[in-house]
Write a structure and sequence with these properties.
The complex is a heterodimer of chains A (242) and B (434).
Chain A: H1 3-13, H2 25-37, H3 42-86, H4 91-133, H5 138-145, H6 154-180, H7 191-208, H8 224-234
Helix pairs in contact in A: 1-7, 2-3, 2-4, 3-4, 3-6, 4-5, 4-6, 4-7, 7-8
Chain B: H1 9-18, H2 27-33, H3 60-67, E1 84-85, H4 108-138, H5 140-152, H6 155-160, H7 197-203, H8 208-215, E2 218-219, H9 223-235, H10 244-251, H11 258-270, H12 281-291, H13 303-352, H14 362-365, H15 370-377, H16 392-402, H17 411-415, H18 423-433
Antiparallel strand pairs in B: 1-2
Helix pairs in contact in B: 1-4, 4-7, 9-10, 10-11
Classes of the chains: A mainly alpha (242), B mainly alpha (434).
Chain lengths: 242, 434
């Protein structure tokens, strides 16, 4: 399947607020086609570069905005845990903390995924551009992309790991409590976050399966254990993720 | 961002065609004008060789950060603003500042024009996406099914196998001592070429919101900075009482503006977890759960199990993303290294004028990746250049090698990288190489 289609599917699976924040791959592709059709068209090339720049700007703005929110939520969650877990709190609250935690974790991972998907899209479209024009834009451009805020996911990854360790330390105790409180617990397990995460994994495997234009910038296929995991995940899906 | 699109830049659109020269010089044409001894090699992938063509020169982004008042200064509060960046700056521009090119600075109107068109494109894209999203979110029943189906999968078994046998990045830099040493950066002196296009773009940006955003640099918050913020808020008696100005005064962080604090405070207020009153996040969540079904307890799946499962999948995704990221970074480094090799190669070729000198063996370029090695060796089979499955890597590699041999008459053909070259050329070069 083509990258554009995969991207589209993934966008459809993503959180509604996120959908217009992904790379406008289709528009970029149109511009690339325009360039090759009208050979000496400096206009189309300038448009292409401009759209690329504004896209990167869009990624940065969104990424940094989300990051800011996650920093706040993470901190608040930790505070909440400190406050409530110390005092013997209701089981329902425990479950809610757990839910919030998992969802925050999921959203943060999805932000890392957002970064990765957009990076991949940029690399793909630049490859196309180079192919059409015979230029060598990809390398210097990507070099710049690597320094962009939206590609620097270190902090988010750190927060993700903190979330995981908090979960680990919290859950043995939470397990019993949550089970007891099942009826009262606000069941807001964010299916959409989970769904989205699954879709992201599937897409990643698909992308890594191989490119029709394999090159030294291509990534090796995803390892098999995950493929198995995903195989089982996608089967029960009534909406075809692939 | 897409909200307001003033008509203003359209005027510049009209100006554009009147300009005599294509301001935005496409690569090949610029290079054709380049008076280097041998023009022939430039035709297909020019800049890999040319010592003059500096892609990364004069990025307005770089220059502007110098003007930013608060780039990595140490701050009295002991908190350092980690990174700021100007939004709406041109992150990258087509390499138009070839030193010898007379048209170097004149393409601004063109880029403005591009901005106009491209933001139109963005809007179109958004609409399309929103349309399709409605379709998806409507089908709640299916989602429910999906969920319960998911939960019926035997997860224990699947997740027990957590060993990540992902091939670790093992990109080898053939004979290079260290990839950082062989960085591609051209001497900084090249960057003295003035480039106004970045400013022009920012000023006449079609999106007024983006223009205002450019005026005030965005800020990247960190947990440390946020902690400092919380302290300030608490000193002022809580998030409801605290005012942006008060917080700003207490924080005393250099470069932090009322604008940053205000929006952060807003976010902070909505993100408060208060167990007593279901405000903040949870409130938001309940409204969301109206439109999206919550986990149905009757599926018989334990609540904590569901959470654990979700966590596990997310964790897996994160692991994979990190691995992929590392891979990508290394591959990019390798690409940089490759280009440097080619450049070096070209320079030596130029010196000797004869191309047949010291072309490196393909295996030294991408030694670890068996696939690329295999592909590079393909030409020895003879007709492989016409093979449609020919890889990008090979194409780039081989193009660069055979370039010195390319006849000027082949110009058109070579300009299009997708067209394959006569196999004879391949074999000739390969014979010489091996």
């Amino acid at each position: 399947m083509k990258f554009g289609k995969r991207l589209k599917r993934q966008i459809e699976e993503s959180l509604p607020e996120w959908r217009d924040k992904f790379l406008c791959y289709k528009d970029l592709k149109k511009l690339v086609k325009l360039i090759s059709a009208t050979q000496p068209s400096s206009k189309a090339e300038a448009e292409f570069i401009c759209l690329l720049n504004s896209e990167i700007d869009k990624f940065n703005a969104f990424f940094v905005d989300q990051e800011e929110e996650f920093i706040i939520r993470q901190m608040e969650l930790q505070e909440w845990i400190k406050r409530r877990v110390a005092a013997t709190s209701a089981a329902a609250e425990y479950a809610r903390i757990g839910t919030e935690m998992v969802n925050l974790h999921g959203e943060m991972v999805l932000l890392v995924n957002y970064s990765s998907v957009n990076y991949t899209g940029l690399a793909k479209i630049l490859k196309k551009y180079d192919k059409r024009t015979g230029g060598l834009l990809r390398l210097p451009f990507i070099e710049k992309v690597l320094e962009q805020p939206f590609f620097t996911t270190d902090l988010i990854s750190k927060l993700v790991k903190e979330c995981e360790s908090t979960m680990d330390s919290m859950f043995p105790a939470a397990a019993a409590a949550a089970t007891a409180a099942r009826e009262e617990a606000v069941m807001v397990v964010e299916q959409r976050v989970f769904r989205n995460a699954v879709a992201a994994l599937v897409t990643m495997r698909e992308l890594r399966r191989g490119s029709s234009t394999y090159g030294h910038f291509s990534l090796p296929p995803l390892s098999s254990p995950d493929a198995d995991l995903l195989q089982s995940l996608q089967l029960p899906s009534p909406i075809p993720i692939l | 961002m897409s909200s307001s699109l003033p008509v203003l830049p359209n005027t510049s659109e009209e100006k554009f065609p009147a300009l005599p020269d294509p301001q935005h010089v496409p690569l090949e044409r610029a290079i054709r004008r380049n008076p280097l001894p041998s023009q022939r090699p430039f035709f297909s992938s020019p800049s890999a060789f040319s010592p003059d063509l500096n892609f990364s020169s004069t990025l307005p982004h770089e220059r502007h950060t110098n003007n930013t008042p608060f780039v990595s200064r140490s701050l009295n509060a002991g908190v350092s603003l980690p990174s700021t960046y100007l939004s709406n700056m041109e992150i990258f521009q087509l390499p138009n500042n070839f030193p010898k090119d007379p048209t170097e600075i004149t393409w601004c109107p063109d880029s403005v024009q591009g901005m106009v068109n491209c933001s139109d494109g963005v809007i179109m894209g958004n609409n399309q996406i929103q349309n399709s999203s409605n379709k998806v979110s409507n089908d709640l029943n299916k989602q429910n099914e999906w969920w319960s189906d998911i939960m019926n999968v035997d997860w224990k078994e699947l997740l027990d196998d957590t060993t990540i046998s992902e091939s670790q990045p093992k990109v080898v830099y053939p004979s290079a001592p260290s990839s950082s040493n062989v960085s591609m950066q051209q001497p900084q002196t090249d960057q003295s070429v003035p480039c106004h296009s970045g400013e022009a773009c920012a000023v006449t940006s079609p999106s007024s919101s983006a223009a205002t955003a450019a005026a005030k640099p965005r800020m990247r918050w960190t947990p440390e900075l946020h902690e400092c913020f919380i302290n300030a808020v608490n000193q002022l008696g809580g998030s409801e009482k605290a005012t942006p100005k008060g917080v700003l005064n207490i924080m005393k962080v250099d470069g932090l503006t009322i604008y940053h604090v205000k929006s952060h405070l807003q976010k902070y207020r909505t993100a408060r977890y208060s167990p007593d009153s279901l405000e903040g996040m949870s409130e938001k969540k309940t409204t969301q759960s109206e439109e999206l079904p919550s986990l149905d307890l009757k599926t018989g799946v334990d609540f904590t199990e569901a959470l654990r499962l979700q966590m596990e999948v997310q964790k897996r995704l994160h692991e994979q993303l990190e691995i992929q990221r590392n891979l990508q970074l290394r591959i990019e480094e390798q690409g940089k290294y490759l280009q440097m090799m080619f450049e070096k190669q070209y320079k030596s070729t130029l010196d000797k004028i004869h191309c047949s000198s010291t072309v490196e063996k393909p295996t030294t370029i991408s030694s670890d990746q068996t696939h690329s090695t295999a592909k590079i060796e393909l030409p020895e089979a003879g007709n492989s250049s016409t093979d449609s499955k020919i890889t990008e890597g090979f194409r780039q590699v081989s193009n660069k090698w055979k370039m010195p041999e390319v006849e000027p008459s082949n110009e058109k053909e070579i300009n299009d990288l997708t067209s394959s070259l006569p196999p004879s050329k391949h074999s000739r070069i390969n014979n010489e190489d091996s």
